[in-house]
Amino acid sequence: MPLLPALPFSVTIDQVLLGQGANPAVIRTRRPRLLSAAERALAEGLSLLTPRALYRQLRVEAIHHERIVLEGGYTLSGMLVTRQLAGAESVVVLLCTVGDDIEKQSQHYLESDPLHSLALYGVGSAAAEALSIAACRYFSEQAHREGQMTTIPLSPGLEGWPVGRGQPEIFQILDGAEIGVELLSSGVMRPVKSVSLVLGIGKQFDPSARMCDLCARRESCTFQSHDA
Ligand code: SF4
What we know:
This protein is α+β, with helices and mostly antiparallel strands. It contains seven helices and eight strands; from the N terminus they run H-H-H-E-E-E-H-E-H-H-E-H-E-E-E. The chain has a single domain (13-214), classed as 3-Layer(aba) Sandwich (NADH Oxidase), CATH 3.40.109. The longest helix has 32 residues, at 114-145. The protein is globular, with a radius of gyration of 18 Å. Residues 211-212, 215, 217-218, 221, 223-224, 226, 228 line the site of iron/sulfur cluster (SF4).
């Protein structure tokens, strides 16, 4: 299966704080210790990342009411994928990971330095998300050169595509072992700092679509200004 070339991506302090579930604006004004911890973790954590991205691009064979049939007989099912991928000529199925070294280092500091442990956890989350955004940009630019466009990225867990259904659908298409990622029966991926998603490629999609509008946490989430 194809691997993406090494993609440039960067991680900011604000992304590390978001990766810890913290509000960067609040932390910057009220919690300088957390800010220092994020800076230290980012300096240490970047060398612990082993970014890899695996994908397949499959032609869309048919779209039914709640099921999309892809080349090879693979299927994606549910209202989310059929609505968002309507009009797609092909679908990119993508799996990204930054490996498990940063998670292990976070665990290592859990008891002796919990602040550092949490900040390393945030670096891993931010890096996995940044890598997936860079990968989506790669396909978006490629589609643009061919006179096409991409949908927003759709990950299992968004409303209408539960993790228990979406993750097995992705892992039946991609062999995660090729980049060291396994899917547990709980639907969680190992390493946890991994992202799975699909992208539709075609000529016409709603340009105003936003991932936040499909997220089950949108009513309570205060971070909707980030890249989602
Ligand atoms: S509402 Fe948007 S920013 Fe908040 S968790 Fe969901 S996708 Fe992320």
